[in-house]
TrEMBL record:
InterPro entries: DEAD/DEAH_box_helicase_dom, P-loop_NTPase. The keyword Hydrolase applies. The keyword Nucleotide-binding applies. This is DEAD/DEAH-box helicase domain-containing protein. It comes from Eruca vesicaria subsp. sativa.
């Protein structure tokens, strides 16, 4: 297709999208209905023309010239105020779908939407009609609804399933992006949108790029264009296609995108949503620096979502460098490894109590978090308090189960919060990033409960455990080694040996 024809087609698609949004506006009516309403109002207010009245009424002695025809003194009804503002995201009440309780949009009465948004639903329906082998309807996806909430709350997202993105997840991402584009076009009719693509989807391979683009293709009837950039195609051809098409979505491998950006073939500074898929594979292939360069080139206030397809602790710094401090965790799995993703676990085995206390002191000094939470036995509080004050930390002690765990906010120095291991409440530890266990846990279930309850809104969680060689923890060794291996953490040799000896016994 020639450049001029493609520009006309693009303009027509944009006009069709605006027309579709106007059709969804409840305040818009056809010209015929508007004329009927206007005529009815004229009849009710007595503003018909004189000849119109003479055709249907005769003069009377009281009104020989029909001057008072239709002008009946009736009390005027109070008109209700109607909000006529255009809302492209109006709710489709005819579709009985799960309600969306949007964070940040609720009012004091906990107002909820009656169903998913019309335009979002139309996008999901277009994708469903293109793929006939789906196990369940896309709108029933809990993951998708939570991602939609996160996107509109402005938070970054990390998917901790440990796999590549699925068709269901891709569908919700591109549909949410399409809905956002439609809303922006309505709100900025007088101000043209940026020439940058709205969605940038980074993938490690050509095959993954093809999968993502196949989902995006279903949205082409709605005026959304997507291109795939990867090695194997001519660079000049891809650059000319980008300049003529100006796509809303770009699916690309990092190295090819950097080539095109360096040649000024595309401007990515205005990207609004950055998706990094299969981060573990990208790191293993040596593309982490390229991904970081691409993220730095995006100057707008964008949102990021990372799919980490590996639980290896070696990739945690990469996730931390790509996401902000406050994030939302999403997953298609409820396994321990998924819930504990991006949490660094260290198990310190010491020769004696003195060595354990020394190691505990070293960890305190190296902790970067201002708030350090110590879950220990109550009888150890006095010894720990003396050490913490010696280190210059402010100490707060939870004396009973009614004490609330309050995230530390200090202007100077660090704060240490002592929590009784027999009374801690895991539901209050979501915002905690650094946890120390100077007295090893009484059971494996307690360890898992602490591990899966901390750092729920962060990718910077750390859990340090301390135990002496004299303590009999052989009953916990096997289970603990399995958790460390599943989570991609380092397993100490003495723990591995202890696990092997307990199994042989």
């Amino acid at each position: 297709m020639a450049k001029g024809d493609d520009a006309l087609a693009r303009k027509k698609n944009k006009a069709n999208r605006k027309k579709m949004n106007r059709k969804n506006d409840s305040s818009a009516v056809s010209s015929r209905i508007a004329a009927i309403i206007a005529a009815k109002k004229r009849r009710q207010t007595g503003k018909r023309s004189m000849c119109q009245g003479m055709c249907f009424s005769l003069p009377t002695p009281e009104d020989p010239f029909n001057e008072k025809l239709g002008k009946v003194n009736t009390p005027k009804k109070k008109k209700k105020k109607v909000n006529k503002s255009r809302d492209a995201l109006s709710v489709n009440k005819s579709l009985k779908k799960p309600s969306l309780d949007v964070e940040g949009v609720e009012n004091k009465n906990k107002k909820k939407f009656d169903g998913p948004l019309k335009f979002l639903m139309s996008c999901l329906n277009e994708i469903e009609s293109s793929f006939h082998h789906l196990d369940k309807p896309l709108f029933t996806s809990t993951w998708g609804i939570e991602f939609w909430k996160s996107f509109h709350s402005g938070k970054d997202v990390v998917d901790t399933t440990g796999t590549s993105s699925t068709l269901e997840q891709i569908a919700w991402i591109v549909s949410t992006a399409t809905e956002a584009i439609s809303k922006s076009e309505l709100e900025e009719e007088d101000n043209p949108l940026s020439n940058s693509p709205f969605l940038l989807y980074l993938v490690p391979s050509h095959s993954k790029a093809s999968q993502v683009r196949s989902v995006c293709k279903a949205l082409k009837p709605l005026g959304v264009h997507a291109v795939s950039l990867h090695n194997g195609a001519e660079l000049d051809h891809q650059i000319s296609g980008l300049k003529s098409l100006e796509p809303e979505f770009i699916v690309s491998t990092p190295e090819r995108l950097l080539e095109i950006v360096s040649l000024k073939g595309v401007d990515i500074s205005g990207v609004s949503l950055l998706v990094i898929d299969e981060l573990g594979s990208l790191c293993a292939s040596g593309y982490l620096d390229a991904v970081k360069s691409i993220k730095q080139a995006i100057s707008s206030n964008h949102r990021s979502i990372v799919f980490n397809d590996s639980f290896s602790a070696s990739y945690i710094p990469a996730v931390q460098s790509l996401l902000g401090r406050s994030i939302n965790r999403l997953s298609l799995s409820d396994s321990v490894a998924s819930q504990a993703s991006c949490i660094i676990q260290t198990v310190n085995v010491c020769a004696s109590e003195e060595k354990k206390l020394q190691k505990f002191s070293e960890v305190l000094d190296s902790a970067s978090s201002r708030g350090i939470y110590i879950v220990a036995k109550k009888e150890s509080f006095r010894k720990l308090t003396a050490l913490l004050k010696l280190k210059g930390l402010s100490v707060i002690i939870a004396n009973n189960s009614d004490s609330k765990i309050i995230p530390a906010v200090t202007k100077r120095g660090k704060l240490a919060y002592l929590i009784d291991i027999e009374q801690f409440d895991s539901t209050e530890m979501k915002a905690i990033e650094t946890v120390l266990l100077p007295d090893f846990v009484p059971s494996f279930e307690t360890y898992v409960e602490i591990l899966t309850s901390i750092a729920g809104e962060s990718v910077r969680g750390t859990l340090h455990s301390f135990v002496t060689e004299k303590e009999d923890v052989s009953c916990l060794a096997g289970s603990l080694v399995n958790v460390l291996e599943d989570c991609g953490q380092n397993v100490p040799d003495n723990w591995r040996n202890l696990s092997a000896s307990s199994m042989s016994d």
